[in-house]
Structures are given as C-alpha cells and as structure tokens.
C-alpha cells in the first residue's frame, strides 16, 4: 500500500446530488467496484458506497477525483487496517 501514489490534494470532499451523482475528492485508490458496492481508499479512510446501478463515470487518481452515478443509499467510512485484515480481493470474496 505504501507504493501507491498519494493524491495530490490532501482535502477530502463528498458532494451527493439527489442521491444520483456522488463526486469524491481526496481519493487514493479504488479497491473494488460493482453495480452495488464501491470500495474507495481516501485520505480520510476507506469509504464504502452502496447503492444500485452504480457506475464510475469519472476516475482520475492523479488528481484524486472520482464521480459515481447511480442510486446511492449508503456511505460508510472504516479504517484502512480493517480493509487489509479483511482480505478484500478475489480470494477474500470467495472465502467470505
């Protein structure tokens, strides 16, 4: 994890428009995504976005910006350590 590029901006902001468009700044890495769940590492911790028909419409990790579209119904933060210990990834999902 230390070898990943750190977002240029240390600020972290969320803008949720009508629960249909979520703009996020301060993004370091997108860990996983599908149409129902997106796991995003930010400068403030790991953000889990849950919803339906989620789609990443903009991804720019150099600037640290992500835009999601779809129906958002949950935004939850957690620590990075929890993500590392959980074993997120292909094998982590198989043996959940």
Give structural attributes.
96 residues; mainly beta; Immunoglobulin-like; 2 helices; Spore_YabP; Sporulation protein YabP; YabP_sf
Strand arrangement across the biggest beta sheet: 1-2-6-5-4-3
Q: What distance separates the N and C termini? A: 22 Å
How many helical stretches?
Answer: 2
User: How would a crystallographer describe the biggest sheet?
Assistant: 6 strands, antiparallel
Structural class, from helix and strand content? Answer: mainly beta
Percent range of helical residues = 10-25%
Classified by CATH, the class is Mainly Beta
Which spans have pLDDT < 50 for at least 5 consecutive residues? none
Count of discrete structural domains: 1
What sort of overall outline do the alpha carbons produce when their principal axes are compared? globular
Mean pLDDT comes to: 83
- What would CATH call the architecture? Sandwich
SS elements, strand count: 6
CATH topology, by name, is: Immunoglobulin-like
Bin the strand percentage: over 45%
Rg to the nearest angstrom? Answer: 13 Å
Describe the structure.
This protein is mainly beta. It has one domain: Immunoglobulin-like (Sandwich), CATH 2.60.40.2000. Helix content is 12%, strand content 54%. It has helices at 80-86, 90-94, and strands at residues 14-17, 21-25, 27-33, 37-42, 45-60, 65-78. The chain has a six-stranded antiparallel β-sheet. InterPro entries: Spore_YabP (IPR012504), Spore_YabP/YqfC (IPR022476), YabP_sf (IPR038705).
